[in-house]
Specification:
With 262 residues, the chain is an alpha/beta fold. The protein is 32% helix and 18% strand. Strands 5-4-1-12-13-14 form a 6-stranded parallel β-sheet. A 4-stranded parallel β-sheet has the order 6-7-8-11, with helices on one face. The longest helix has 12 residues, at 159-170. It is globular, with a radius of gyration of 18 Å.
Length: 262
């Protein structure tokens, strides 16, 4: 292995607090000059806000070291100039789309869907559906397809279930910008200038993080923190590697093995 992709929430921190050993592990990664990038499906915070939170926890990070679905969506829009999209995203990231946002549904070329959490309701979902149905050419852009996330006390619905509802109702397939889309991981690899075969991803979601990375040829490691559940290790689908937490990474990296699952 030569490089590392770190999921953020549930791997680096949880409920705003650094997971035990995260600060020390990231310091070790920097000392070893291991190329790394933070990859997150978070759409409730901008890259600047995520970077500020990591820095406040003792993990120095700049926005360009963070790869988010909003950044990926911006890259896609840049490749399709002139598109105007109706936004269904948290206020924290709306500014990233100021120049491509449409406030006139009749002129919109599609919708961008992020994690609106408790702001989802029937009328909002129906609004997105009606924009999609105005033309066969309108595009459904998903900022991630995660099923759920953990808030420290319980699990909460993430963006994926709402995207599935819109796909079913509209008959359109979503263009996914975040995990588990292969393009999202490929963009991260290109930013680091490394190959998939030389890269390890640490994530707390078996499907959206670990198996999605594996589908791109990236080695996936499941951590037993965050949204991890014991049943993640009991099904037919298994992670390539499993460790208790990010704290265990340096020793296993030095040993050249990562508690490989048989």
């Amino acid at each position: 292995m030569q490089a590392i992709l770190f999921d953020v929430d549930g791997v680096i921190y949880q409920q705003g607090k650094a997971i035990d050993g995260a600060v020390e592990t990231l310091q070790w990664v920097r000392e070893q000059h291991i190329p790394h990038l933070f990859v997150t499906n978070t759409t409730s915070m901008s890259r600047q806000q995520i970077g500020a939170r990591l820095t406040s926890l003792g993990i120095h990070c700049t926005p360009d070291q963070i790869h988010t679905p909003a950044a990926a969506a911006r890259d896609w829009i840049a490749a399709h100039p002139g598109k105007k999209m109706t936004l269904f995203v948290p206020d924290a990231i709306r500014h990233e789309f100021d120049d491509v946002a449409s406030f006139d549904d009749h002129k919109a070329d599609g919708v961008i869907i992020g994690d609106m959490s408790a702001n989802w309701n029937y009328f909002t979902l129906n609004h997105a559906f009606r924009v999609l149905m105005k033309s066969p050419e309108t595009v459904l852009v998903a900022l991630g397809m995660s099923r759920y996330y953990g808030n420290g006390e319980d699990l909460q619905l993430d963006t994926g279930p709402f995207i599935k509802a819109l796909e079913y109702a509209s008959g359109k397939s979503a263009l996914v910008m975040g995990k588990p889309a292969s393009a999202f991981f490929q963009q991260a690899l290109q930013k680091m200038g490394v190959s998939a075969a030389d890269t390890l991803l640490l994530g707390d979601d078996l499907m959206t993080d670990v198996m999605a990375a594996k589908n791109c040829g990236i080695h996936g490691c499941l951590v037993r923190t965050g949204k991890y559940r014991q049943q993640d290790e009991q099904g037919v689908i298994k992670a390539e590697y499993v460790i208790n937490s990010i704290k265990d990474l340096p020793q296993l990296w030095r040993e050249g093995q990562l508690a490989k699952v048989s």
